[in-house]
Specification:
The protein is mostly helical. It has helices at residues 3-35, 38-44, 49-55, 59-74, 83-94, 97-110, 118-140, 150-170, 177-188.
């Protein structure tokens, strides 16, 4: 096999993996992780289950790929974030309900003992709280206008963001997720 053929095969393989991850996102959003099967994902991309296992040897490996892909969409260097830019992230999430639904379904399931994404979400939330505290410290210093420290406020900020996502998913006509988040920033002291 020539170098060009090998590169072409690698690109096709990467494209197929991305297609499988997108299909897995859809299936998980529809059925939850426990209800999603490798067979359903394989069928959605026109593969057999054995064919899918060539790309992802286990359901857990596929789950990790889905979570990593989702995080890539939100990846922004911490040093460029400001509190007011978080509102832009909330607005962006409002434009992609399927991704938010998948994330929320996986998050909800992950609180059960033995769920394969539990460690992922535990570590992710630790990093997110730390990042939010840094954003708040940069913006406000050691105390926010409400008197709380960035470390005390960070979990509240994360809870509001995720809680608004759940409410919006359940009743998008009644919950203005970006507007409610901007209101919360006002409570923090943001103008």
């Amino acid at each position: 096999m020539s170098y060009g053929d090998a590169m072409s095969a690698r690109v096709r393989s990467e494209e197929r993996r991305a297609e499988i991850v997108r299909a897995a996102l859809e299936v998980i959003a529809e059925r939850g992780y426990r209800g999603a099967s490798l067979a359903a994902v394989a069928e959605r991309v026109g593969l057999t289950q054995q064919g899918l296992l060539h790309y992802f040897p286990t359901k857990n490996a596929l789950l990790v790929a889905v979570l990593e892909e989702r995080d890539q969409w939100d990846a922004v260097p911490d040093t460029t974030w400001r509190a007011d830019l978080l509102a832009s992230l909330v607005e962006y999430n409002a434009m992609r309900p399927g991704i938010v639904q998948t994330f929320s379904a996986l998050l909800g399931e992950s609180v059960t003992e033995g769920h394969p994404a539990r460690a992922y979400f535990t570590e992710r939330y630790r990093r997110v709280r730390e990042s939010m505290a840094c954003i708040l410290r940069t913006e406000y210093g050691d105390r926010l206008p409400n008197g709380l420290t960035p470390e005390r406020t960070a979990p509240l900020l994360v809870a509001v963001m995720d809680g608004l996502q759940y409410q919006w998913l359940l009743d998008p006509e009644s919950v203005d997720m970006p507007g409610a988040f901007r209101d919360f920033l006002t409570l923090l002291g943001e103008e």
